[in-house]
Amino acid sequence: MTAKDLPKVELHLHLEGAAPPAFIRGLAREKKIDISGIFAEDGSYAYRDFWHFLKVYDAATSVLTSPEDYRRLTLAVLEESAASGVIYTETFLSPDFCGGRDLGAWREYLAAIREAGEEGERKMGITLRAIVTAVRHIGPDAARETARCAAETAGDFLTGFGLAGDEKMHRPKDFAWAFDAAREAGLRLTAHAGEWGGPESIRDALADLRPERIGHGVRAIEDLALVDRLAEDGVVLEVCPGSNIALGLYPGWRQHPIAELDRRGVKVTISTDDPPFFHTTMAREHDRLAEAFDWDEGQFRRIHTLAARAAFCDETTRDRILKRLEAPT
Ligand code: ADE
Ligand code: ZN
What we know:
Blueprint: E1 8-14, H1 21-31, H2 50-61, H3 67-83, E2 86-93, H4 103-124, E3 127-135, H5 140-153, E4 158-164, H6 176-184, E5 188-193, H7 199-209, E6 213-216, H8 224-233, E7 236-239, H9 241-246, H10 258-263, E8 267-270, H11 282-293, H12 297-309, H13 315-326
Parallel strand pairs: 1-2, 2-3, 3-4, 4-5, 5-6, 6-7, 7-8
Adenine binds at residues 14, 17, 164-165, 192, 195, 243, 273-274.
């Protein structure tokens, strides 16, 4: 079986970060916005490091100015995911980008994204759920407004709340109010940690935000007592190996800790984060992991079953996804 044919579950995908560069260039042209500086000569996104990546991300996002833009974006992203064999995906959304944290505007953006998700389900057989993320470097005050938007629109489509952005800014406890509000609204929780911060950052996120999943979390490997705790507590890591390697966290695939974390009993899953920024796709992640660690189809099937069990969706949807993962291809 080729990597593309294996059915996959992706838990960690930033919607704007998944925007194909040609799509963003097209919108910039339509709106006469000059963002030519963010592209390399070959048309891909150009950035120097993670912090510059966040700036390029914001510049690319600046051309997405209406619910209709997000409807089109969502469809373009789902097409790419479906072409890689993804059958279920969760995408991070931010009211910061979608309507500037105004609840009325946010409802319209969310409705447009949901509509695209339903079209994706009908036409491509891919299921979409959404996770609102507060953006860490925008700060805790904004995160409170973001959490209010999320709480007001929580339901069968918007199922989670999380924290992304610059891990070196603020502390997890600064976002505890936002996470508590989201939890009370019935949203499931995840937080980026252990990407640019070390094990302490993961410990703080677990203590102060009480998420059931951690975005990245790979730097837990620097503290084996923490690795054992993650394994014992069943904390799920949304691991994005190609993202970590493209951003220089590890020099190559063989040095990436995903296999070691898995061997030590941590629930690891596989995602792309911001695929065009990192020149990756879900199919490519599988090819590279198979090469680096000699992982076979059984290993990938086990990981995607685990991802489906950790998905922020209702039980009927989960059963349907699990059945599709089990079906022979
Ligand atoms: N936003 C988009 N991609 C991100 C990443 N890899 N880490 C933190 N915030 C992000
Ligand atoms: Zn991320």
